Amino acid sequence: MTGHQRDRRQYTALFEREQEIAAAEQAVDGLCGRIADGEAILGGLLLYSGEAGVGKTALLGRLRRVAAERGCTVLTGRGSESAQSVPFHIVRQLLQPALAPMTPARRQELLGDWYDVALPVLGIAPPLGPPADPQGVRDSLDWVVTQLAMTNSPLVVVIDDAQWGDAESLTWLASFAVRLRELPLLVVVAYRPDELPENTPAFNDLVNGRGNRPVSLHALTPAAVAELVRATLSREADDPFCREVWAVTGGNPYEVVELIAKAQDRGLRPAEESACLLRELGAAARGSGLVTRLERLGTSVTRFAWAAAVLGTEISPRVAAMLAGMSPSEAAECADRLREARILTGAADLEFVHPLIATSVYQAVPPATRTAMHGLAAWAITNAGHGAAAASRHLLEVHPDDDPDLVRQLRAAAQEHLAVGAPEAARRCLERAMAEPPPDEDRASVLYELGCAVLLTSPSTTINHLRAALALPSLPKDLQVEATYRLSQVYAHNGQLVDAAEVVAARAAEMPTGSGRMRLQAAHFLWKGIQYEEEGAEQRSRQIADLADGLEGRNNSERALLALRAFDGMVRGEDAVRVAELNDRALDDGRLAAGMSWTNTGWGFEVPSVIGITYAYTDRLDRAERLFSEAVRAFEISGWSGAHLAFAHDFLGLVHRRRGNLALAEDFLREGLRLAGRLGPGLPIQWDGTCLLVETLLARGHLAEAEAVAEKYSFRPPYPPAMVMPDAPSVVGRLLLARGRRKEAIAELEAVGRIMEERGRNNTLWAPWALDLASAVAEDNPERARALADQAIRHAGRFGTDTAMGEALRRAAQLTEGDEALDMLGRAVTHLRRSPCRHELAMALVDHGTALRGVGLAHEAAELLREGLALAKRCGADGLVETALGELKASEEEGAAGSGG
């Protein structure tokens, strides 16, 4: 394309675009002006919508020039119809030019903890690690762009042809868009509204909703077309000719400029007698007309154009020549002729003049030729050292042909896709490998890998693939255990805990004694033990005790069984010293053993989690805090910022709740719920966070906030099939009681009690139903209330922690009077002074002081109330502070009156 032709095309595309150009300049000037004036950071999103050829690309070019003139850093990316299956294709176009030239030290400084996560995603480092969490990958991209915006502000990100964007890039963009108004950053996106991809609902929602109104580009008016015709061909062009140009093109700027150029090439006189020829010329600019025009250029030129269409983007003349089967000199000649025909442009790397041309040429390639060229393209990319993932978009287009090497390449590509957090791309590769099909000896392994690839996105599909793999005799023995374990995990995460327990039990029964069998037994006990309404709970507890009590923790299978045995003992309220000793044996010198870390995919995070939870409820809060702090750190470093990180925040919140750091606990729990909320509503992880937050808010005395959280997250029956920490129905009963809905609370707590007693779950800290039920029935049935309290004291005594004993005595004292109540409260304070749980001590001090004031011991009461008040303030227990202040004031007044008398 000559410089004159390029200028004419840009002029035409921007003709009659004054308002659209003004919107672009206003957006850039607004961003730069606020920064220059030191005003509050306020970025934004600018959307341009229009059909193909309406001038979006030219408008974005104008915007880029304006931004550069204003001193902005401009990042540019473009969707490609041929590269839609390449994960993070747009993201890499945007960020590679900014990061690739940096020194490793500068990149490390910029990326911080996200260094190892972001670089493989951006194609700057090889993807060699385990599967990455997609949410963590998106968070790493958030960090990269945020750092660039803060260090290179103002920043303008321009994305063209977003309708052809890869799903991973568009999903990231949609999630990142909510932060734009916090950053010196303008994002500009152009797209065809009728061609938005169906597999990116979040992006579709971004451009169609959330209050974002795109700037719509429309076709040129007849008057504008007439002006362009006269400016290009002749000022003497008559009205019928100009009107026909508009009619043939519909005012589409791209088609207008092409038709005018062809009329000029043909030497048409712009008069009415030539108008009848315009329709034929217009047809040659698109579809079959373009193909016919291409064929007239000769077989070699046509074949080179086909090769370019197969490559799609960043078209290397050398590689295109190889695909077309011609010499470099012949390819250079073909490229020149295609430039002259306004089909290709560029020099070192070629590109099609317009995506419409690329689509038409690609669709014209005979299927057999297209497949062969894709195969050659994959070979060329792999031979150049770019890896299987880079070649995979071509491998996906090759026809199945029983090729074991193709299966091997696709499996390798899938692993690379998983390592950068692109499970959907991995799934496509493995499904294509299955269609090849793989050799019989590899079929089961490919099915297993396919099941693992969709583990986080499609539980039902995962189940089908893993079951199919396990049904084949060719699945290697080491993978049989792995596939069974993963199948049980996906059953569990899908809420099918009974199926999860049964599938590992069945496989374990078929296996010889050894670590593999023990691993499946541990999984069986795990999925059985966390079922809320478990059948045969007592029998399962005896079985795991018989199996685990004599183990020393010599390997990870033994450690897992010990951890699950300790957790079961904790839930049942067995001797806490013994429970903690079993839990200690599940660790290796006080730390998680190698192969059982938080991010280990073999065992999963469930085993470390039950170790931490057990410590949290046995007053070993230092160890629990260390474990869950390690979890947060490990998940953040690994980029696992979805359900795993939400879980870690929830249970670090549990530790702070047990310590009595209520405000800090609330912060962790709200962050856990925020993280979980990004994954969608109603997920199991939200139950733990909601339950803990409601309990924490009640402890703080914030009843209205607790009610709001319960309403927002539907914290009520039906409950999930898995246990919640703490026991969800117990907390629901406590909330109902706090709201004054006593009859509903009694019904809820009685139902909880039946379930707990049937299953021998007697931990009064995890499930304090009996003490709350005692308070609820005390008015109408004091004898029953006292019996319930006595039962709770017995269970707390068996468990033996100072927290359990102190809390049971404190709550029981509320149901009696006189010396007995004072004695109970005194013992409660003694126990809780030895406990790490400061909020419980604060409540006991205030209760004891209140009771002493009630029997006329005002001075003794005031001393305890002052201590309780100070501790309640440190805990953030606002409701308790208010109670303590009232009681202290009354005690001081009574003490003063007594002294005066």
TrEMBL record:
GO terms for cellular component: cytoplasm. Residues 14-188 form the Orc1-like AAA ATPase domain. Keywords: ATP-binding, Nucleotide-binding. It comes from the Bacteria. One of its GO terms (molecular function) is adenylate cyclase activity. This is Tetratricopeptide (TPR) repeat protein. Transmembrane segments: none annotated.
